[in-house]
């Protein structure tokens, strides 16, 4: 029974850390794009903004999953690893966004939250997933 209680405690702690990293991801996307992201997605039903945010959340989730999966035997190391690699993933996604913004015409953030569907959102979303995969691979 103590194994179950211990596992629940660890899962809860990892869960809280994962949610914090996801919230930071939402904040990052909101920072990099004009306007209020929540309003654009939930009130204006902006699909571009939703795809962009979804890719960032999936990427961070993948990094958190990989970090927990590879260090579960050592709880302290797992928490530190999850926090460090999660933040690294956010930084790298932000950097990749800025590089894409430099090499594309116009302001990428404004393009990605335009109400008209735009193919640039798929490129940026793919970049988020790719960056997360690279960070995840470096964990193991």
How would you sum up this structure, described in words?
84% of the residues lie in helices and 0% in strands. Helix 1 runs antiparallel to helix 3 (47-71) and helix 3 (47-71) runs antiparallel to helix 4. The chain has 140 residues and is mainly α. The protein has helices at residues 2-32, 37-43, 47-71, 75-103, 108-112, 120-139. The chain has one domain.
What's the structural blueprint in terms of helices and strands?
Layout: H1 2-32, H2 37-43, H3 47-71, H4 75-103, H5 108-112, H6 120-139
Helix pairs in contact: 1-3, 1-4, 3-4, 3-6, 4-6
Features:
elongated; mainly alpha; single chain; 140 residues; 0% strand
Could you write a compact summary of the structure shown?
With 140 residues, this protein is mainly alpha-helical. Helix content is 84%, strand content 0%.
Report Rg: 17 Å
What's the helix count? 6
Instruction: Report mean pLDDT, rounded to a whole number.
Output: 93
Structural class call reads mainly alpha
Largest sheet: none
Oligomer: single chain
Number of domains: 1
Uncertain spans: none
Shape summary: elongated
| Helix-strand sequence | HHHHHH
- Distance between the first and last residues' Cα: 31 Å
């Amino acid at each position: 029974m103590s194994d179950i209680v211990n596992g629940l405690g660890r899962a809860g702690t990892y869960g809280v850390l994962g949610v914090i990293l996801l919230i930071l991801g939402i904040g990052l996307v909101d920072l990099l794009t004009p306007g209020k992201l929540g309003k654009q997605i939930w009130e204006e039903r902006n699909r571009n903004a939703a795809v962009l945010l979804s890719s960032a959340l999936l990427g961070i989730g993948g990094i958190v999953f990989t970090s927990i999966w590879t260090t579960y035997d050592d709880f302290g190391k797992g928490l530190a690893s999850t926090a460090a690699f999660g933040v690294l993933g956010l930084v790298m996604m932000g950097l990749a966004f800025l590089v894409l913004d430099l090499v594309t015409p116009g302001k990428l953030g404004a393009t990605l939250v335009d109400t008209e569907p735009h193919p640039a959102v798929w490129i940026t979303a793919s970049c988020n997933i790719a960056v997360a995969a690279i960070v995840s691979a470096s964990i193991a």
